Amino acid sequence: MIPTAMRAAYxxxxxxxxxxxxxxxxxxRPGPTDVLxxxxxxxxxxxxxxxxxxxxxxxxxxxxxxxxxxxGEVVExxxxxAGFGVGDLVWCNSLGHGGRQGSFAEYAVVSAERLYHLPGxxxxxxxxxxxxxxxxxxxxxxxEAGLCPGETVVVGGGAGGxxxxxxxxxxxxxxRVIATASGRDAQWCRDLGADVVIDYADPAASSRIRExxxxxxxxxxxxxxxxxxxxxxxxxxxxGRVVVLAGRDAGxxxxxxxxxxADRSIRGFVISNAxxxxxxxxxxxxxxxxAAGRLRSRIALTLPLAEAARxxxxxxxxxxxxxxxxxxxxx
Length: 331
Fold this sequence. Notes:
Elements: E1 5-11, E2 21-26, E3 34-43, H1 46-53, E4 64-65, E5 70-77, E6 89-92, E7 107-111, E8 116-117, H2 124-144, E9 152-156, H3 161-172, E10 176-181, H4 186-192, E11 196-199, H5 205-212, E12 217-222, H6 229-235, E13 236-244, H7 256-260, E14 265-268, H8 276-291, E15 299-304, H9 308-316, E16 326-330
Protein backbone atom coordinates (compact mmCIF):
# COMPACT_ATOMS: atom_id res chain seq x y z
CA MET A 1 0.00 0.00 0.00
CA ILE A 2 1.46 3.35 -1.07
CA PRO A 3 0.81 6.06 1.54
CA THR A 4 -0.74 9.40 0.67
CA ALA A 5 1.85 11.50 2.56
CA MET A 6 5.64 11.36 2.89
CA ARG A 7 8.46 13.15 4.67
CA ALA A 8 10.49 15.43 2.45
CA ALA A 9 13.10 18.18 2.59
CA TYR A 10 11.88 21.15 0.58
CA UNK A 11 11.94 24.91 0.14
CA UNK A 12 9.11 27.37 -0.40
CA UNK A 13 11.41 30.03 -1.88
CA UNK A 14 15.07 30.15 -2.90
CA UNK A 15 17.44 31.18 -0.14
CA UNK A 16 20.10 29.98 2.33
CA UNK A 17 20.47 26.44 3.62
CA UNK A 18 18.53 27.43 6.73
CA UNK A 19 15.45 27.88 4.54
CA UNK A 20 15.21 24.11 3.98
CA UNK A 21 12.19 22.63 5.72
CA UNK A 22 11.52 19.00 6.60
CA UNK A 23 7.89 17.92 6.86
CA UNK A 24 5.04 16.09 5.19
CA UNK A 25 4.08 16.50 1.54
CA UNK A 26 1.71 14.46 -0.61
CA UNK A 27 3.25 11.42 -2.25
CA UNK A 28 3.61 12.35 -5.96
CA ARG A 29 1.72 10.37 -8.56
CA PRO A 30 3.54 8.98 -11.61
CA GLY A 31 2.38 9.81 -15.12
CA PRO A 32 2.05 7.27 -17.95
CA THR A 33 5.82 7.19 -18.65
CA ASP A 34 6.96 7.76 -15.04
CA VAL A 35 8.07 5.52 -12.20
CA LEU A 36 7.38 6.04 -8.49
CA UNK A 37 10.50 5.17 -6.49
CA UNK A 38 10.81 4.63 -2.74
CA UNK A 39 14.10 6.36 -1.93
CA UNK A 40 16.79 4.33 -0.16
CA UNK A 41 19.60 6.90 -0.12
CA UNK A 42 20.52 10.14 -1.85
CA UNK A 43 23.54 12.44 -1.99
CA UNK A 44 24.05 16.18 -1.92
CA UNK A 45 25.83 17.96 -4.80
CA UNK A 46 27.15 21.48 -5.19
CA UNK A 47 24.59 22.12 -7.93
CA UNK A 48 21.87 21.34 -5.37
CA UNK A 49 23.07 24.29 -3.29
CA UNK A 50 23.12 26.53 -6.38
CA UNK A 51 19.51 25.63 -7.25
CA UNK A 52 18.37 26.06 -3.64
CA UNK A 53 20.04 29.45 -3.30
CA UNK A 54 18.68 30.73 -6.62
CA UNK A 55 22.12 31.34 -8.10
CA UNK A 56 21.46 28.69 -10.74
CA UNK A 57 18.25 29.67 -12.51
CA UNK A 58 15.94 26.78 -13.34
CA UNK A 59 12.14 26.38 -13.30
CA UNK A 60 10.95 25.60 -9.75
CA UNK A 61 7.50 24.66 -8.50
CA UNK A 62 7.03 25.35 -4.79
CA UNK A 63 7.08 23.58 -2.44
CA UNK A 64 10.21 22.32 -4.19
CA UNK A 65 11.82 19.08 -3.00
CA UNK A 66 15.61 19.48 -3.12
CA UNK A 67 18.14 16.92 -4.32
CA UNK A 68 19.31 15.36 -7.57
CA UNK A 69 20.48 11.78 -7.00
CA UNK A 70 18.81 8.70 -5.60
CA UNK A 71 19.01 4.96 -5.30
CA GLY A 72 15.73 3.28 -4.49
CA GLU A 73 13.10 0.67 -5.24
CA VAL A 74 10.29 0.81 -7.78
CA VAL A 75 6.86 0.79 -6.12
CA GLU A 76 4.75 1.74 -9.14
CA UNK A 77 5.39 2.10 -12.87
CA UNK A 78 3.24 3.85 -15.45
CA UNK A 79 1.97 1.81 -18.41
CA UNK A 80 4.50 3.50 -20.68
CA UNK A 81 7.49 2.97 -18.38
CA ALA A 82 8.74 -0.11 -20.19
CA GLY A 83 11.35 -2.25 -18.48
CA PHE A 84 10.54 -1.29 -14.89
CA GLY A 85 8.61 -3.42 -12.42
CA VAL A 86 7.71 -3.26 -8.75
CA GLY A 87 10.70 -4.22 -6.60
CA ASP A 88 13.39 -3.26 -9.13
CA LEU A 89 16.42 -1.51 -7.64
CA VAL A 90 17.09 1.66 -9.61
CA TRP A 91 19.03 4.91 -9.68
CA CYS A 92 18.70 8.43 -11.07
CA ASN A 93 21.01 11.45 -11.14
CA SER A 94 18.96 14.17 -12.83
CA LEU A 95 16.12 15.19 -10.52
CA GLY A 96 15.70 18.63 -8.90
CA HIS A 97 16.26 20.64 -12.07
CA GLY A 98 14.39 21.75 -15.18
CA GLY A 99 11.00 21.62 -13.47
CA ARG A 100 11.58 18.15 -11.98
CA GLN A 101 11.03 17.72 -8.24
CA GLY A 102 13.97 16.42 -6.23
CA SER A 103 15.08 13.31 -4.41
CA PHE A 104 15.25 14.34 -0.72
CA ALA A 105 12.01 12.56 0.11
CA GLU A 106 10.68 9.13 0.94
CA TYR A 107 9.21 8.87 -2.56
CA ALA A 108 10.11 10.46 -5.89
CA VAL A 109 8.65 10.35 -9.38
CA VAL A 110 11.24 9.73 -12.09
CA SER A 111 10.72 9.75 -15.85
CA ALA A 112 11.54 6.30 -17.23
CA GLU A 113 14.06 7.80 -19.66
CA ARG A 114 16.07 9.13 -16.71
CA LEU A 115 15.93 5.98 -14.57
CA TYR A 116 18.42 3.10 -14.68
CA HIS A 117 18.60 -0.33 -13.07
CA LEU A 118 21.17 -0.77 -10.30
CA PRO A 119 23.39 -3.78 -11.04
CA GLY A 120 22.97 -6.65 -8.61
CA UNK A 121 25.32 -6.70 -5.64
CA UNK A 122 26.26 -3.02 -5.88
CA UNK A 123 26.18 -1.16 -2.56
CA UNK A 124 23.53 1.62 -2.81
CA UNK A 125 25.68 4.02 -0.77
CA UNK A 126 28.67 3.55 -3.07
CA UNK A 127 26.46 3.93 -6.13
CA UNK A 128 24.71 7.11 -5.02
CA UNK A 129 28.04 8.68 -4.06
CA UNK A 130 29.27 8.14 -7.63
CA UNK A 131 26.25 8.72 -9.87
CA UNK A 132 26.40 12.46 -10.42
CA UNK A 133 30.18 13.02 -10.42
CA UNK A 134 30.94 9.96 -12.54
CA UNK A 135 28.31 10.83 -15.16
CA UNK A 136 29.70 14.37 -15.24
CA UNK A 137 33.20 12.99 -15.70
CA UNK A 138 32.15 10.54 -18.41
CA UNK A 139 30.41 13.16 -20.52
CA UNK A 140 33.19 15.70 -20.01
CA UNK A 141 35.92 13.28 -21.07
CA UNK A 142 34.28 11.36 -23.89
CA UNK A 143 31.48 13.53 -25.29
CA GLU A 144 33.06 16.96 -24.83
CA ALA A 145 36.80 16.23 -25.06
CA GLY A 146 36.74 13.10 -27.24
CA LEU A 147 39.41 11.48 -25.10
CA CYS A 148 41.33 8.65 -26.80
CA PRO A 149 43.53 5.89 -25.35
CA GLY A 150 47.15 6.96 -25.01
CA GLU A 151 46.39 10.66 -24.65
CA THR A 152 47.56 12.70 -21.68
CA VAL A 153 44.94 14.17 -19.36
CA VAL A 154 45.40 16.75 -16.59
CA VAL A 155 42.74 16.62 -13.88
CA GLY A 156 42.76 19.67 -11.65
CA GLY A 157 41.39 18.82 -8.21
CA GLY A 158 41.78 15.08 -8.71
CA ALA A 159 40.77 14.13 -5.16
CA GLY A 160 37.25 15.59 -5.18
CA GLY A 161 34.06 13.85 -6.23
CA UNK A 162 34.14 14.81 -9.92
CA UNK A 163 37.93 14.96 -9.96
CA UNK A 164 38.27 11.45 -8.58
CA UNK A 165 35.78 10.16 -11.15
CA UNK A 166 37.73 11.91 -13.93
CA UNK A 167 40.94 10.25 -12.78
CA UNK A 168 39.34 6.79 -12.67
CA UNK A 169 37.53 6.98 -16.00
CA UNK A 170 40.51 8.48 -17.84
CA UNK A 171 42.80 5.79 -16.41
CA UNK A 172 40.40 2.97 -17.24
CA UNK A 173 40.13 4.27 -20.83
CA UNK A 174 43.87 3.90 -21.33
CA UNK A 175 44.85 7.56 -20.99
CA ARG A 176 47.86 8.82 -19.05
CA VAL A 177 46.62 10.84 -16.07
CA ILE A 178 48.29 13.76 -14.33
CA ALA A 179 46.32 14.89 -11.29
CA THR A 180 46.74 17.93 -9.10
CA ALA A 181 45.65 17.67 -5.47
CA SER A 182 46.69 18.60 -1.97
CA GLY A 183 49.58 16.65 -0.51
CA ARG A 184 47.30 14.75 1.86
CA ASP A 185 45.30 13.39 -1.09
CA ALA A 186 48.22 12.36 -3.29
CA GLN A 187 48.03 8.66 -2.42
CA TRP A 188 44.26 8.60 -2.96
CA CYS A 189 44.75 9.96 -6.48
CA ARG A 190 47.41 7.32 -7.17
CA ASP A 191 45.05 4.64 -5.89
CA LEU A 192 42.44 5.88 -8.37
CA GLY A 193 44.87 5.51 -11.26
CA ALA A 194 46.79 8.78 -11.56
CA ASP A 195 50.23 8.26 -13.10
CA VAL A 196 51.57 11.54 -11.73
CA VAL A 197 50.26 13.59 -8.80
CA ILE A 198 51.34 17.20 -8.31
CA ASP A 199 50.60 19.34 -5.27
CA TYR A 200 48.48 22.22 -6.54
CA ALA A 201 49.92 24.44 -3.78
CA ASP A 202 53.41 24.05 -5.25
CA PRO A 203 54.40 27.37 -6.89
CA ALA A 204 56.12 25.32 -9.59
CA ALA A 205 53.06 23.15 -10.28
CA SER A 206 52.79 24.30 -13.91
CA SER A 207 56.46 23.57 -14.53
CA ARG A 208 56.02 20.11 -13.05
CA ILE A 209 53.10 19.43 -15.38
CA ARG A 210 55.25 20.53 -18.30
CA GLU A 211 58.02 18.17 -17.17
CA UNK A 212 55.53 15.31 -16.83
CA UNK A 213 54.04 16.00 -20.27
CA UNK A 214 56.90 17.29 -22.43
CA UNK A 215 54.86 16.74 -25.64
CA UNK A 216 51.93 18.70 -24.23
CA UNK A 217 48.61 17.91 -22.61
CA UNK A 218 45.80 16.60 -24.81
CA UNK A 219 42.87 17.16 -22.42
CA UNK A 220 42.68 19.49 -19.42
CA UNK A 221 39.73 19.42 -17.00
CA UNK A 222 39.90 21.54 -13.83
CA UNK A 223 37.25 21.02 -11.17
CA UNK A 224 38.48 23.84 -8.91
CA UNK A 225 36.89 26.69 -10.86
CA UNK A 226 40.05 28.83 -10.60
CA UNK A 227 40.99 29.11 -14.25
CA UNK A 228 44.31 30.49 -15.45
CA UNK A 229 43.67 29.89 -19.14
CA UNK A 230 46.88 31.58 -20.25
CA UNK A 231 48.96 29.13 -18.23
CA UNK A 232 46.74 26.18 -19.11
CA UNK A 233 46.88 26.78 -22.87
CA UNK A 234 50.65 27.06 -22.61
CA UNK A 235 50.70 23.45 -21.41
CA UNK A 236 48.47 22.06 -24.17
CA UNK A 237 49.55 20.04 -27.18
CA UNK A 238 48.48 21.00 -30.69
CA UNK A 239 44.78 20.20 -30.90
CA GLY A 240 44.47 20.11 -27.10
CA ARG A 241 41.02 20.43 -25.53
CA VAL A 242 40.14 22.30 -22.34
CA VAL A 243 36.81 21.43 -20.72
CA VAL A 244 35.42 24.04 -18.32
CA LEU A 245 32.91 22.60 -15.85
CA ALA A 246 33.33 24.86 -12.82
CA GLY A 247 34.04 28.49 -12.01
CA ARG A 248 30.92 30.56 -12.63
CA ASP A 249 32.64 33.72 -11.35
CA ALA A 250 36.23 32.96 -12.35
CA GLY A 251 36.63 36.03 -14.59
CA UNK A 252 39.31 34.26 -16.62
CA UNK A 253 41.12 36.05 -19.45
CA UNK A 254 40.88 34.27 -22.82
CA UNK A 255 44.20 34.25 -24.73
CA UNK A 256 42.89 34.04 -28.29
CA UNK A 257 46.27 33.65 -29.97
CA UNK A 258 47.16 30.52 -28.00
CA UNK A 259 43.87 28.96 -29.16
CA UNK A 260 43.72 29.39 -32.91
CA UNK A 261 47.42 29.14 -33.71
CA ALA A 262 47.60 25.60 -32.28
CA ASP A 263 44.11 24.29 -33.11
CA ARG A 264 43.17 24.22 -29.43
CA SER A 265 39.64 24.49 -28.10
CA ILE A 266 37.75 25.33 -24.92
CA ARG A 267 34.37 23.74 -24.21
CA GLY A 268 31.98 24.73 -21.46
CA PHE A 269 30.01 21.87 -19.94
CA VAL A 270 27.37 21.44 -17.24
CA ILE A 271 25.62 18.10 -16.80
CA SER A 272 22.31 19.83 -16.09
CA ASN A 273 22.05 20.61 -19.81
CA ALA A 274 22.79 17.06 -20.94
CA UNK A 275 20.05 15.38 -22.94
CA UNK A 276 18.37 12.29 -21.53
CA UNK A 277 20.00 10.23 -24.29
CA UNK A 278 23.48 11.43 -23.26
CA UNK A 279 22.75 10.65 -19.61
CA UNK A 280 21.61 7.17 -20.62
CA UNK A 281 24.83 6.58 -22.58
CA UNK A 282 26.87 7.54 -19.52
CA UNK A 283 24.65 5.40 -17.28
CA UNK A 284 25.23 2.29 -19.39
CA UNK A 285 28.99 2.73 -19.19
CA UNK A 286 28.92 3.41 -15.45
CA UNK A 287 26.71 0.40 -14.76
CA UNK A 288 29.26 -1.86 -16.45
CA UNK A 289 32.04 -0.46 -14.26
CA UNK A 290 29.90 -0.59 -11.10
CA ALA A 291 28.98 -4.21 -11.74
CA ALA A 292 32.65 -5.05 -12.22
CA GLY A 293 33.67 -3.27 -9.02
CA ARG A 294 35.94 -0.87 -10.93
CA LEU A 295 34.79 2.42 -9.38
CA ARG A 296 35.68 3.84 -5.97
CA SER A 297 34.43 6.75 -3.88
CA ARG A 298 34.90 8.26 -0.44
CA ILE A 299 31.92 8.88 1.84
CA ALA A 300 32.38 11.43 4.62
CA LEU A 301 29.16 10.81 6.52
CA THR A 302 25.51 9.85 6.18
CA LEU A 303 22.80 12.08 7.65
CA PRO A 304 19.08 11.57 8.26
CA LEU A 305 16.59 13.59 6.24
CA ALA A 306 16.00 15.84 9.25
CA GLU A 307 19.54 17.18 8.76
CA ALA A 308 19.17 18.10 5.09
CA ALA A 309 20.08 21.72 5.85
CA ARG A 310 23.29 20.57 7.53
CA UNK A 311 24.14 18.52 4.44
CA UNK A 312 23.93 21.67 2.31
CA UNK A 313 25.91 23.70 4.82
CA UNK A 314 28.71 21.12 4.81
CA UNK A 315 29.15 21.62 1.08
CA UNK A 316 29.11 25.38 1.34
CA UNK A 317 31.30 25.49 4.47
CA UNK A 318 33.29 22.24 4.74
CA UNK A 319 34.15 21.00 8.22
CA UNK A 320 37.91 20.25 8.36
CA UNK A 321 37.28 17.83 11.21
CA UNK A 322 35.33 15.50 8.90
CA UNK A 323 36.97 12.98 6.58
CA UNK A 324 37.07 13.77 2.88
CA UNK A 325 34.19 12.45 0.81
CA UNK A 326 30.56 12.72 -0.21
CA UNK A 327 27.69 13.59 2.11
CA UNK A 328 24.76 11.18 1.86
CA UNK A 329 21.21 11.61 3.15
CA UNK A 330 18.98 8.67 4.06
CA UNK A 331 15.25 9.43 4.12
